[in-house]
Amino acid sequence: MLDLVLETKGLTKYYGNFVAVDNLDLSIRKGEVFGLLGPNGAGKTTTILMLLGLTEPTQGEVRVLGFDPARQPLSVKKSVGYMPDQVGFYDDLTARENLIYIAKLNGIPRDEIKRRVEEAIERVRLTNVIDQRTGTFSRGMRQRLGLADVLIKNPQLIIMDEPTQGLDPELAHEFLGMIHSLKEEGTTILLSSHLLHQVQAICDRVGLFSKGRMVLQGTVSELARKVLGGAYRIQLEAEGPAAKLRKALGELRDVNAVKMNDGRIVIEAQKDVRADAAEAVVKAGGRLQSLNVESQSLDDIYTRYFDEVKHESVH
Amino acid sequence: MSQSTKRLKSRNEREGSPWTGLSAVLTKEMADHLTGARMLILEALVLLTAVGTIYTALKSIKPTDDNQFLYLRLFTTAQDPLPAFVFFLAILVPLIAIALSFDSINGEFSRRTLSRVLAQPVYRDALLMGKFLGGLLTLTMVFSAIWLLIFGIGILRLGVPPTAEETGRALWFLLGTIFYGGIWMALAMLFSTVFRSSATAALASIAVWAFFIFFWNIVVGIIAPLLGPDQIATLDQLVAAGQTQMILTRISPITLYADIATIMLQPTERFLGFVLPVQLDRAIKSPLPLGQSLLVIWPQLTGLIAATILLFVLSYVLFQRQEIRA
Questions:
Q1: Is residue A301 part of a domain?
Q2: If residue A258 lies in a helix (H) or strand (E), which one and from where to where?
Q3: Which of A15, A114, B23, B166 is the most buried (most CB within 10 A)?
Q4: Which residues make Cβ contacts (< 8 Å) with residue A284, sequence separation at least 6?
Q5: Cβ contact (<8 Å) for B15 and A73?
Q6: B288 φ, ψ to 5°?
Q7: Mean pLDDT per 10-residue segment, chain A (315 residues)
């Protein structure tokens, strides 16, 4: 229990009759990167605001670093850094002045402010524009300044809302690299995103959100096992009698399902069965043309999960 | 937020002081105001009217005049084609105050800085209070500077130093001016909390200002007779009707400010509003001492301050309940 940084029990938020967050149980351990994933409007931002004490929960309990954000918001906000989506700055002030204001609000001693601000700016590689007005900053620079803004208080937990939204792929990649290096230093990070493929690489665990409910939670491969039926998806192209090939592949050990997709055969398996599959194709009289193992993608997990949910509700 | 009952104190009180970070907000707001282009324009405008009206007033004021209150006459003397400086103050002070705060809250929303600032270890209390006090202190600085300027010009041109009585009256009038600004600032801040668009908030504030400047007296002229009897037959009824009218005009902060200006800057004025000739019988036409003048405008002065606080409290309550997500 000691290394739990964040914990919620039955966290619920109503806006009128609308349930924004429904009975959320979430726990995040120290040093972990947790991804809160889901489409826009799923309740991610509302959850984050409740964690920071910026919105009051209708029901349920929250503990952040051992504090209750609704009653002890100052203690929580002293050690939790929050980067809102589309972070904004005072455009008439320079990057340095913007951060100095935040440093002062955090009660950082006067003689330390200059050093801390410069260090934070250095970390996000904005030193060359430190005295430029933030009105001139590009989207990517703002995002990096937003990170510096969070780092200035040496947070134990960083919460980021949609950190890569609106960044081009290259900038997004660079930004994710920065998050990764923070993780290496042992900072606990909670991030929300609807861009599943971007964040799956850096998240230790993810939670899939839909309509205010956390529907799935775990590591990416755990979720893949749970939802895709197997952790591995193997794509195979072969010439030969299709029905016979499918039957042969289906009889292999650890294979859960064999399907056809655009003339290709897709195998779902619990292990990497590429070698066995190749052998089976040849034995069944087929000519193997290509054989690939797909990486497990959160997008697939997500789409599949909701397809199944839809199917179940139809039946 | 003081939660007075003991039960609440032990169980539900928020940790720490609501004013944590107040000075940081205050300094930033004042720095913004004092360096911003908006303030520069307004300062130039006030300065221009101040210097202009004072110089024209000086043409008709001679140090050898009987009237003892030369410096106060700098404020009140009108010389064609320019009206007196107090007239300009009554119109310009609201505009300056509104300009300083019409985007104070919704501006933070639209710049998307509000959630970032509130994620720091401060309460909303400190943010709102810091913004209001920052504006009020800016007003104080600007008007103190202008008052000093007027007295400076006066000393140069008149060659006699101001008396203690004059200085005292000017200072009380300065206090009235600041809170006259405070009322409009609190109003603009209220609108900036209610409306998400800065332009709407500015427009709403200006609308209220225009209403009181141009229409309130007309409205009072229509309403007041409706409240009294159809025909005024007795002296008592006449007095009552007059008083109703006076009370109604005093809903406008402009009337309150005009009252303060009249009594403070013209020591020989001893009554406000509705007076019967009978009451003036055998009155000595000599200036009132400062303390007595103060007594006459005390309700007006406290009224201005109370209304400022009331409007501020209203925006405070609304802001505390507001969802901060855009």
A1: no
A2: strand A255-261
A3: B166
A4: A240, A241, A244, A245, A247, A248
A5: yes
A6: -80, 145
A7: 84 92 93 90 91 92 93 93 93 95 95 96 95 94 95 95 90 92 93 86 90 88 75 82 85 84 81 86 87 78 78 66
d(CA B53, CA B156): 16
Question: Out of B21, B111, B120, whose CB is closest to A88?
Answer: B111
B66–A contact, CB cutoff 8 A: no
Q: Name the nearest CA neighbour of A69 among B126, A37, A60, A154.
A: A60
Mean pLDDT of chain A: 89
**Which of B24, B32, B115 is opposite residue A54, by nearest beta carbon?**
B115
Q: What is the pLDDT of residues B284-310, one digit of tens each?
A: 778 888 999 999 999 999 999 999 999
Q: Which residues of B touch A133 (CB under 8 A)?
A: none
Helix residue ranges, H only, chain A: 44-51, 73-79, 95-105, 110-123, 139-151, 169-184, 196-199, 220-228, 242-250, 274-283, 298-314
Contact A71 B14 (CB under 8 A): yes
For chain B, what are the domain ranges? Answer: 18-321
Q: How many CB atoms lie within 10 A of CB B161?
A: 12
Residue A140 Cα distances to A109, A145, A191, B180, angstroms: 30, 9, 17, 45
pLDDT band at residue B8 using 50, 70 and 90 as cut-offs? very low
| Partner-chain residue, chosen from A77, A88, A107, that has the shortest CB–CB distance to B112 | A88
Domain count, chain A: 2
Q: What is the mean pLDDT of residues B17-38?
A: 92
Domain shared by A214 and A238, yes or no: no
Q: What is the mean predicted confidence (pLDDT) over B201-222?
A: 94
Spatial contact of B70 and B154, defined as CB atoms under 8 Å apart: yes
- Give the residue numbers spanning the domain of A108: 4-218
Shared domain check, A238 and A92: no
* A174 located within any domain: yes
Whether residue A163 is found in the same domain as residue A262 = no
CB neighbours of A163 closer than 8 A, spacing ≥ 6?
A83, A143, A175, A176, A179, A191, A193
Task: Report chain A residues whose CB lies below 8 A from the CB of B12.
Answer: 71
pLDDT one-digit tens code per residue, B77-133:
888 788 899 999 999 999 999 999 999 999 999 999 999 999 999 999 999 999 999
Considering the domain architecture, whether residues A138 and A255 belong to the same structural domain is answered as: no
- Whether the CB-CB separation of A238 and A244 falls below 8 Å is answered with no
Q: Which of A179, A203, A188, A206 is nearest to A31 (CA)?
A: A188
What was the pLDDT predicted at A313?
Answer: 67
Provide the ipTM: 0.87
Closest by CA to A210, choosing from A24, A51, A6, is: A24
Instruction: Look at residue B15 and tell me whether its pLDDT is greater than 50.
Output: yes
pLDDT in tens, B162-176: 999 999 999 999 999
